[in-house]
Amino acid sequence: MHRRTLLASPALALPVAMPRLGRAQAEWPNRPVSMLVPFVAGGPSDITARVIAGRMTQTVGQPVVAENRPGANGAVASQVLARAAPDGHTLMVGSIGVYAINVALRPNLGYDPVRDFTPITLAVTTPNVLVVNPQQIPATDLRGVIEWLRRNGARASYSTSGVGSSDQLTMELFKLRTSTEATHIPYQGGAAAATALIAGDVQLSFQNLGTVAGHIAGGRLRAVAVTSRARHPTIPDVPTAIEQGMADFEVTSWQALMGPAGIPAPTLARIHAAAVEALNHPESRQRLEQIGFTVVANTPEDYGAFQRAEIARWTEVVRAANIRPE
Prior knowledge:
The protein is built from twelve helices and ten strands. With 326 residues, it is of the alpha/beta class. The protein has two domains: 32-125 and 253-321, D-Maltodextrin-Binding Protein, domain 2 (3-Layer(aba) Sandwich), CATH 3.40.190; 127-226, 3-Layer(aba) Sandwich (D-Maltodextrin-Binding Protein, domain 2), CATH 3.40.190. Strand 5, helix 7 and strand 6 form a beta-alpha-beta unit.
């Protein structure tokens, strides 16, 4: 009788049940994880996602699969992420455009990059680099490119990874600062934009260094200027735009990992730990740094603050340059 009373007592049963509930909340992953990529394969988001996913697959006990969902400059994948269950089994590696610039350009995105997502970590940063097709633009420095554009702007065109991408905004700011013209040709991702430039479909582009570092090294593209404040160790012979007379012309692109809004704290902690371990692994760092990325791998709080500041910054840039979606 006494034993039955003890087992039936809610006050005594509750402490036994609570730890089991806590463990259940923290058990991630319990099935394969989809890591969305909002662009085509081969670009910065795709490269970063595959590095993280490949290493996480080895450490979390379930497959982590990079899944390309291109379209609408990242909005297609972003809407999928916004609707996903907040259980950590759908994540996304996206760009500055997806997480900060789109909201400055488009009032009806179909997703809110702050409200609809859970920050996990700022994965990598990289400068943009002005690259030209060497068969079509003979210039080897920034002054030469500007002079070429002033002579040929009516027939000049530039490629980007999409409308509202950091490479588009960088070029539009460049055009404003230099009083030049060139027609914008958007593609679905940086890899496609670089391929079009190499093929001669366009003449120039501001691309993420990670996208074009191999093409620069192979001579398929000529690097003219880098948008970091100091020269980048990947291309130390390429001067900055600031060095070449464009004061304060600094743009850093970035890739970040996010999940849907509402991920429980224990699950978020496990995802963050696995992602940071993946980014900081020596093999991951070597691969990312070889193509021009700088690994950040910061906290969710630090990334969230950074993202909000970037949204504010690019909103001001879009307004000042009077840039409109095409």
